[in-house]
Amino acid sequence: MRLYGFTPSPNTWKVRAFADHIGVPLEYVFVDLRKGEQRKPDYLAVNPSGRTPTLVDGDFTLWESNAIQHYIGASKTTDLWPQDACTRADIMRWQSWQLTHWASACEPMIFERLVKRALDLGAPDAAVLAKAQASFANEAGILDAHLATREYLVADRLTLADFAVASYLLHAEAAELPLAAHGNVARWFATVAALPAWKNTAPAM
Ligand SMILES: N[C@@H](CCC(=O)N[C@@H](CS)C(=O)NCC(=O)O)C(=O)O
After folding, report:
1. Which domain does 120 fall in, by range?
2. Which of 4, 18, 51, 182 is the one with CA 20 to 30 A from 45?
3. CA of 118 to the centre of ligand 1 (A)
4. Is residue 53 reached through a cis peptide bond, with omega within 30 degrees of 0 on the bond before it?
5. CATH code of the domain in which 9 resides
6. Ligand 1 environment, Cβ below 6 A
């Protein structure tokens, strides 16, 4: 399987870390978003959305990182993407929340504090940051309450859901995401981030 991705992106990272953890080798092709490579015709031919990541397996092409995680998880027998309907639905619940609410809560601070600095786009916008703090507090509060009585998100063990949700904390330190107020999230994230697979696939910061 070939994965096209942008290494510092949480959406690429969650796929690579998960594949590494369950031992599915990926042929990795770096798509440099800073150079606009995602808008070149050869990339648009595999992913017309012009976003990363994209998986190509023979004749089959798939984009959207959560769907890619499912496909990789289904390529072998693994407890991280098990067969039973309840656990699968629970994993998909957290992935849906990640895609709709968690990403929106984390992205503004990542963009204002990290991407703008990296690409020399000027100072962070204070109004955007203020709004983002409120959104982050709300969503991180939901995650924190869930993790108060659990070590992992689903089924009391590591699953694909942990990779999907933790990926957005990849830049927590550099983007100053206020994790200190959410001790259960910080504890859970430290556990996931300590996995060898996480480190094996982490971008050089
Ligand atoms: N929902 C998509 C989001 C993909 C996405 O937005 N990728 C970003 C990097 S984090 C991207 O490639 N952006 C390039 C662009 O918009 O030009 C997924 O989960 O795969």
Report:
1. 85-201
2. 18
3. 17
4. yes
5. 3.40.30.10
6. 6, 9, 11, 33, 38, 50-53, 64-66, 99
